[in-house]
Amino acid sequence: MWFPRLASDRVLRRQAVDGPFALTLRLDNTERVHCLNRQAEAEGLYRGMPFSEARAFCPTLRGAPADPARDAVMLETLRRWATKYCPWVGMEGADGLVLDITGAAHLWGDEPAMLADMQLRLDRAGFEARIGLADTRGAAWALARHGGGITAPGAGLAALASLPVAGLRLDEATVIALKRLGLRTIGALATAPRAPLARRFGAGLLLRLDQAAGLQPEPVTPLADPPRHAVRLTLPDPIGLTSDVMAGTARLLQELCLRLKAQEVGARVLRLTLRRVDQASCQVELRLASAMRDPARILPLFARGVEEVDAGFGIDQLRLEATQVDPLPVQQIGQAAEAPDRRDNLITRIGTRIGLDNIRRFLPADSHIPERSFVMMPAAGTKTCGDWQVPRPRPRPLLLFPPEPIVAQGTLPPTSFRWRRMRLTTARATGPERIAPEWWVEDDGPCSGLRDYWRIETHQGRRLWLFHMPQKPGWFVQGEFA
Description:
Elements: H1 6-14, E1 21-27, E2 30-36, H2 38-42, H3 51-57, E3 62-65, H4 68-82, E4 89-91, E5 97-99, H5 111-125, E6 132-133, H6 137-145, E7 149-150, H7 172-180, H8 186-191, H9 194-201, H10 203-213, E8 230-239, H11 242-262, E9 265-276, E10 281-292, H12 295-298, H13 303-307, E11 315-327, H14 342-354, E12 360-364, E13 374-378, E14 399-406, E15 416-419, E16 422-435, E17 451-458, E18 463-468, E19 475-480
Parallel strand pairs: 1-3, 6-7
Antiparallel strand pairs: 1-2, 4-5, 8-11, 9-10, 9-11, 12-13, 14-19, 15-16, 16-17, 17-18, 18-19
Helix pairs in contact: 6-10, 9-10
């Protein structure tokens, strides 16, 4: 199953375009045509040509940037859809699927009826698809891309005799060399002596030929579905007490944590779904500050959410699912083993009340500009920097705030100035320390440019961090030392 215009079909399904349309991708510092619709091909455009030339040939051409990541997601969606026809569905490059329908065609009547249903549904969905059916994977690939249709059982290479040699999944250089030798079709290649071909092109050419003929195996390997970390408990009699729900949650946690441990992952987000006898459901979501799989640590965190659940006439089913997991490899256990991080437990408990995103911490950033030397990140999920140290030529203030202007003249620190409604007198000034702007970062703020920093000690006991801007004469206070 080949989708020759998968990328453009994905975009045009959401917003149709009348006329030529192409998606562009930047290659070798040039915007090139990545995928185009039928109208664009009718104008003589082709894949790989520079987009500027395409616009010159076709002034009405409309373009948009390509997104290979979303194309891959769409192909995966089509793969899951194709499992309705057979369980063995695998990827075939970036724009195709391969299905092993052995023993499944009779469910749709016969093979032509199955292919007709596939084609009809894809056409309705807005995807152009070409489908080939043969005894071997290689033959089906050749049919899908160079003809389409169904071959008779046991036909072998005879059904592919008229197709070009490019249908054997050969590289472009090999195809060109074969055409120069006069071997333009698969039939001509199959009747040629094998020994000279092997000496000149290697064993890969004959392997592709044998795979298409069925002499070499080429099985279909379906992609494994992502693991689902979920457990369920159905009760014979409804329950409504908080203690009963917590007891059932404890049983589910034990089983779920064993599964997580077997896959060496830990839960970051847990969702407890409580189904009532009236078929209504209540959900309790628990977001953890770090990956965990210890039932004893996780269970008490559910207490607050379970207490707020309205049990109604009773709860008859509990379902626990880890909707987000992170790698958590097995660690060595011994006398020197580290204790569980209690800080993560505290962050999780507070986060259940005010939200994990509202608990933030400061982290260092790679910048020598004072106000850019740190960032604020959520405390959950971010690792501490340990003994992170950056060599500083001068000490930095303990308290840092946005620059606050003061009234002063000259390039030397003022002997007396007013700051925050306080009249301060300079006792000692240490400096200057010049900090240049980061030329690779655009900054049009009022304090952009060179800065000369001074460490000021006042008679009133304040120890401030002032700077002067030579290009924009003015003094500012930005920090205070302990």
